[in-house]
């Protein structure tokens, strides 16, 4: 009996830790099978391939581009030394002029994150420079990341 009581607090912590979790973990490493581009492609139906940063150029003439976020659109991050292949996130909803919630994969290695805050820090309020929530510090990350803007998940031909 005392053995059961000794492990009861640990069991309760594990159960409570699973409640309300907005993260999914994978055994994948940063360059492993869980990547942002395939995750976004599967969730949105966009017919784009290759690195996330190349999606902006590939989508010209196929999908709409904007600098104003709407749910379901894809925020495309430029390639930088910190994110050499770029990054893509799906807009879940806008919560203020300069903050949206996104779903994305592998921002933190091996994880799918949902309802993650992203804040526009661009001088023109055009979403070309953003800061992203960083769960390990429970705050927006200190680095700002350049973006191209948003791709609509609807074909241009379908929108007409």
Describe this protein's structure.
The protein is α+β, with helices and mostly antiparallel strands and 160 residues long. The protein has four helices and nine strands. A six-stranded antiparallel beta barrel has the order 3-4-5-6-7-9. The longest helix has 17 residues.
Summed over residues and divided by their number, the pLDDT gives a mean of: 84
Number of helices: 4
Assembly status: single chain
- Strand/helix succession: HEHHEEEEEEEEH
Number of strands: 9
Shape descriptor reads: globular
Roughly what fraction of the amino acids lie in strands? 35-45%
Gyration radius from CA atoms, angstroms: 18 Å
Sheet having the most strands? 6 strands, antiparallel, barrel
N-C termini distance: 70 Å
Please state the structural category: alpha+beta
Residues in helices, as a percent range = 10-25%
Question: Are there runs of 5+ residues with pLDDT below 50, and where?
Answer: 10-30
The side-by-side strand order for the widest beta sheet comes to 3-4-5-6-7-9
